[in-house]
Protein: Protoporphyrinogen IX oxidase
Amino acid sequence: MLWVKALHLFFVISWFAGVFYLPRLFVYHAMATDQATRDQLKVMERKLYRFVTPMMWLTIALGLWMLWAYAWSAWSSMGWLHAKIVLVTLLVIYHFYCGHLVKRFAADDNRRSHVWYRWFNEVPVLILLPVVILTIVKPF
Structure:
């Protein structure tokens, strides 16, 4: 089971690397003034999203495997785990919204400023911190 946990952590880190960087590309894209730069950012956004999406699925699959292996009935009464699952669900929603934004940028249909994307870029940090605390400290 330690191998599953190690792989889960590896894919979490990989997923977060992409979830941190993709919105930063959106910031640059929203600031870009020339078409060549926008075209290059479209390629980068598309490739990054396609690369990190399997990382998300592997994170989820391995997390579910650990839940099943550690007996869900024993863990299901732990509030910290429920809170973590809610936060991970929010991160999955965020991930798919990033995919929506990749499509919007690809169609030259961005409707937001670079400032909005700078704030949007902070959402994963606001999810990561409580997830780590919940996982390690298990406060409730």
In short: The radius of gyration is 17 Å.
